[in-house]
């Protein structure tokens, strides 16, 4: 092949080179920027691999880990392990299925000084299981556990039913003859025939006989076939039934208060005093509901009370795949001192504490003035509750050092109640024995503002790298960073600004306003940060992580003093856009982004390096180790500004290296021949392929690429070869050959996409331009008008899964706003204004649709980024949109 391809010097596709070696990018803010621990010391690890580990409870220096169909015992001081002890040998004429449940312990009773483990056998729905609670004597470390009793329900296999958790009331265990109550909650219908009650019912059993029986009693195990009484929301007069979607999850007892949590329902506070009295038939009286707090989209997982019984802390286990409208998984604090009146929510929320915006809380425990949270793959979190209405995180230990997904790894449960020892059960390693070093809570208030004009910056992330704790600034730029007293490295960052780092700042007291910290950020966004629409700037992977790229401008150029230097920022968010992590690629231009099915981001961009300058078209991709890898697609020595607007796409099929190869198109101009080319490349090609060429510079522009259901690449571009009448042209690659292009329509700025195996596109058409949607069917394009505002220009459309965004002039010439519509077979929805800033130009929108594939509630979102031009600086805006429904906005 002759012509300009002779000048393309290919530097190699594999092996890739780490950024740390080539020095072309620097990490500004990484997920693992924080140390592994903060104010917490590791004393040791009881290694329980390869088994998956689960719930944990304890008595004295021993903790008991229940995992599926077995349990182990760990000596906290020595980290010695006994077990595993499987349930199968104790099975009594009932076929076992793997199960586990939240267990609890008994302290010595009056009858003997034995210690008992109360272990429910919980399993998945629709399995034939043994819905029982096993009661083991585990007193002697050197002896095997003895099964002393079994709560069997109906004493037979029940389909889809089980006990989820159990808790023991030991308040009167030392008094001979007094009942010892076990409270067990079901997460499905366990089918007591005479009741027929399901879901949120608490079953109450007296196990005094079992606890007092000697271990050599020939009548063991003692069976209990029915509860002594039950409680459920609505059983008490004046209180309504619980919601239909409620299902029991956890129960705990604190003094005479029973706390019941129901994902889908909420928190219920119940008085257990009536149990010590009997009704005329000789049965225990039903416990009395004192109050509740039900709320929409509840995911109340567990609850624990302060020692004075004034406050209750609940873990709200919200995973994003459980529904778009659920809040971040957090800790909610309720003030339960007042009883209130029967109704939907008796108790006010005293506070909210969010351990991590990326990972949900799981279990929460309160001991004296400290709270402890099992925070999955963000580890153990410790917070001060001296003021329960203002909890402040003051320590953590991260047991999970792998990438942050999937979310249900790391610390699953913990037990902080033995002599300063914290036993944290990590899902895939074992029990970490930790110790809190002691720290006092503190708060730092301040303002984040722009260097140009001192304008407050809202939504900036102010973060302590020392404490792995951050806060968002409000609309006035004000923030309150609550953490532990001491010296912190504090960083502030926002999507459109360079970071600001205060390497050593001492935070002294709990009063947030005692000393203000003013942080100034330098704007580095260019006025074309998210341009152009042919190459994607935003993508969402299968784990709901949002990826964004955009272009910045920085002064001066490292190699060309006095000239602007551009850079490219890659940002990603694991919490649906609340917080972002950033990486910067220096001397870079025209980024385009794609994410493969393995959640790996791929970025294609231009690099201008050296003096005289050299232009490189480069592919970056993130290795499983977390390091960026770099491939040079083409290199042009002594050239600059000859490659423009590359676009990258990924087809869902792995290549020979067992990774998903990128497919790239771009515009190339030959300044000698005065000719323009559109090229295509993937790693299997020796050199890039020419798709089309034409005379004159920039006669072909803005190539956009996607794949149909058969894996055929389709490329659309803007053809300017006919003066005054730009056209959209289309070509596809069949049998390794690019086909003769066809005219789609007269227009500019195409954006192509695939849906359901078909090819679709949007572009500008007419004067003033309007937005047109096109469908490629049977080798023919069919076009439909989207924007219909007379005499109002609409530009830069972007398409993803029939969701369309564009910039439309609103308040006057050059004053664009961002609009959104979705195409349906009966026509597009009414345009929806996303920016809402008529006097601030907003341009170059890019959107990406995401629907969770594994969800527990419907969840669809359309994410949009665009460039907003303020008086003092440009900024990159991000918006989350609920996709429009047919027939309207």
TrEMBL record:
It holds the Pfam family LVIVD. It comes from the Bacteria. Gene3D superfamilies: Carboxypeptidase-like, regulatory domain. This is Uncharacterized protein. It comes from candidate division TA06 bacterium.
């Amino acid at each position: 092949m002759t012509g300009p391809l002779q000048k393309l010097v290919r530097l190699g596709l594999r092996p890739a080179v780490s950024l740390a070696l080539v020095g072309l990018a620097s990490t500004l803010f990484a997920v693992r920027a924080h140390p592994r621990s903060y104010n917490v010391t590791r004393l040791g690890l009881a290694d329980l691999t390869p088994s998956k580990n689960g719930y944990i409870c304890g008595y004295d220096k021993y903790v008991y880990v229940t995992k599926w169909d077995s349990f182990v015992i760990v000596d906290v001081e020595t980290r010695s392990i006994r077990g595993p002890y499987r349930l199968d040998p104790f099975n009594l004429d009932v076929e076992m299925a793997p199960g586990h449940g939240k267990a609890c312990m008994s302290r010595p009773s009056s009858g003997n000084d034995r210690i008992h483990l109360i272990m429910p056998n919980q399993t998945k729905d629709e399995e034939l299981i043994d819905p029982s609670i096993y009661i083991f004597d585990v007193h002697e470390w050197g002896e095997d556990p003895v099964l002393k009793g079994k709560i069997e329900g109906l004493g037979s296999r029940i389909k889809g039913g089980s006990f989820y958790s159990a808790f023991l009331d030991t308040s009167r265990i030392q008094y001979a003859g007094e009942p010892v109550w076990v409270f067990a909650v079901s997460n499905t219908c366990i089918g007591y025939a005479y009741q027929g009650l399901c879901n949120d019912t608490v079953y109450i059993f007296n196990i005094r006989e079992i606890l007092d029986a000697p271990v050599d009693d020939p009548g063991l195990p003692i069976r209990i076939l029915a509860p002594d009484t039950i409680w459920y929301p609505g059983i008490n007069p004046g209180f309504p039934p619980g919601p239909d979607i409620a299902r029991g999850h956890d129960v705990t007892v604190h003094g005479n208060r029973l706390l019941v949590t129901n994902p889908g329902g909420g928190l219920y506070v119940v008085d257990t005093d009536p149990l010590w009295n009997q009704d005329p038939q000789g049965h225990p009286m039903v416990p009395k509901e004192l109050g509740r707090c039900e709320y929409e989209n509840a995911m109340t997982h567990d609850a624990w009370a302060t020692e004075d019984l004034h406050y209750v802390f609940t873990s709200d286990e919200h995973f994003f795949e459980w529904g778009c409208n659920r809040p971040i998984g957090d800790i909610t604090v309720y003030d339960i001192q007042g009883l209130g009146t029967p109704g939907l929510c008796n108790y006010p929320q005293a506070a909210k504490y969010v351990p991590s915006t990326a990972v949900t809380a799981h279990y929460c425990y309160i001991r004296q003035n400290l709270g402890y949270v099992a925070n999955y793959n963000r580890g153990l979190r410790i917070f001060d509750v001296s003021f329960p209405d203002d909890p402040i995180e003051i320590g953590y230990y991260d047991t999970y050092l792998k990438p942050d997904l999937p979310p249900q790894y790391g610390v699953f449960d913990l037990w902080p109640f033995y002599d300063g020892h914290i036993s944290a059960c990590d899902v895939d390693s074992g029990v970490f024995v930790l110790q809190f070093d002691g720290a006092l809570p503190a708060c730092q208030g301040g303002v984040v503002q722009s260097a140009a004009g001192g304008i407050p910056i809202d939504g900036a992330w102010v973060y302590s790298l020392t404490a792995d704790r951050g806060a968002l600034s409000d609309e006035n730029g004000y923030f309150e960073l609550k953490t532990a007293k001491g010296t912190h490295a504090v960083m502030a960052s926002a999507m459109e600004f360079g970071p600001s780092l205060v390497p050593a700042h001492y935070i002294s007291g709990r009063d947030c306003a005692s000393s203000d910290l003013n942080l100034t950020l330098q704007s580095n966004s260019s006025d074309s940060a998210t341009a152009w629409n042919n190459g994607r700037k935003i993508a969402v992977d299968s784990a709901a992580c949002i990826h964004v790229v955009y272009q910045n401008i920085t002064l001066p150029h490292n190699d060309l003093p006095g000239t602007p230097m551009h850079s490219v920022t890659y940002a990603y968010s694991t919490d649906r856009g609340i917080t972002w992590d950033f990486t910067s690629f220096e001397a870079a231009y025209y980024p385009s982004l794609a994410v493969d099915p393995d959640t790996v981001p791929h970025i294609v961009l231009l690099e201008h390096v050296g003096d005289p300058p050299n232009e490189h078209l480069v592919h970056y991709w993130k290795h499983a180790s977390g390091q960026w890898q770099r491939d040079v697609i083409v290199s042009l020595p002594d050239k600059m500004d000859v490659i423009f607007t590359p676009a990258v796409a990924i087809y869902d099929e792995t290549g020979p290296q067992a990774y998903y190869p990128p497919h790239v198109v771009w515009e190339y101009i030959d300044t000698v021949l005065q000719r323009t080319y559109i090229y295509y490349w993937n790693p299997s090609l020796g050199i890039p392929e020419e798709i089309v060429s034409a005379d004159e510079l920039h006669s072909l522009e803005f190539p956009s690429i996607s794949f149909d259901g058969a894996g055929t690449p389709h490329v659309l571009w803007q053809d300017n070869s006919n003066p005054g009448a730009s056209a959209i042209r289309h070509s596809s690659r069949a049998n390794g050959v690019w086909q003769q292009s066809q005219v789609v329509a007269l227009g500019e700025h195409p954006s192509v996409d695939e849906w359901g195996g078909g090819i679709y596109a949007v572009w500008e058409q007419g004067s003033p331009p309007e937005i047109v949607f096109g469908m490629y069917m049977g080798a023919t394009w069919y076009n439909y008008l989207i924007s219909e505002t007379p005499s109002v220009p609409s530009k830069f459309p972007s398409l993803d899964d029939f969701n369309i965004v564009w910039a439309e002039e609103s308040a006057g010439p050059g004053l664009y706003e961002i609009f959104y519509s979705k195409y349906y077979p009966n026509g597009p929805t009414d345009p929806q204004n996303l920016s809402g800033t008529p006097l601030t130009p907003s341009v170059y929108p890019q959107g990406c649709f995401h629907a969770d594939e594994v969800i527990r509630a419907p969840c669809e979102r359309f994410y949009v980024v665009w460039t907003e031009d303020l008086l003092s600086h440009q900024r990159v805006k991000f918006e989350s949109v609920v996709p429009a429904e047919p027939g309207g906005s």
